[in-house]
Amino acid sequence: MCGRFALYSDFPSLARSLKLPLAEGELTPRYNIAPGTWISAVRRHEDGCQLGLDTLWWGYRPHWADDKAPQPINATVEKVATSPYFRGAFAHHRCLVPADGWYEWLAVDGRKQPHYLTRGDGEPLWFAGIWTDRPDGKPGCAILTEPARGIAKAIHPRMPLTLDQQSLEPWLDPELTDRETIRHLVHHLQHERLTHWPVSNRVNKPVEDDPALIEEER
């Protein structure tokens, strides 16, 4: 799954990584981003042309759902295109959630050890996401997850769908709505590019938010 992540790259670094025209934006470094908070995401503006770095609520609830409807933070790749709750957003409201890495917890000797997963080359990651207008009129989103691959599999059975460079533009293309076409054009980042290490249990508390959280615990 993806329930906690970090984003500390500055805007120029993200724009350079995206390699697509991106309207100006600002970012505050965050090392312990938790669900139920505002997060940064790249999506197309209403004109369908310009990309913007917007702020979305990390919790997905469509505008037509009632107050008792769930607010998932993740949507699985297996069901996102067919589930009545998600399929409209998958076809028309896809976004990219930038991250420098994410956290997963590994059971070790009866306790859960947090690990930080990131790219070995230090480049930002791009999580596939979907968004919707919530009942309160504000945008909310969910991050897609897939079965874990490579080194991530040793930590947790699922991981965020992290896209490779060639997939970023088609994922954001509003003209692409067909599930099979999207599946053909969009691919995940090669798992060989990922690395991980154990980090402090301080990350368990969302109020903790500083660069030391991503340092390797020895």
Automatic annotation (TrEMBL):
Keyword line: Covalent protein-DNA linkage, DNA damage, DNA-binding, Hydrolase, Lyase, Protease
SUPFAM superfamilies assigned: BB1717-like (SSF143081)
Signal peptide, first to last residue: none
Protein EC: 3.4.-.-
Family matches, as InterPro entries: SRAP, SRAP-like
Pfam family, one: SRAP
Family note: Belongs to the SOS response-associated peptidase family.
Protein name (record): Abasic site processing protein
Organism: Halomonas marinisediminis
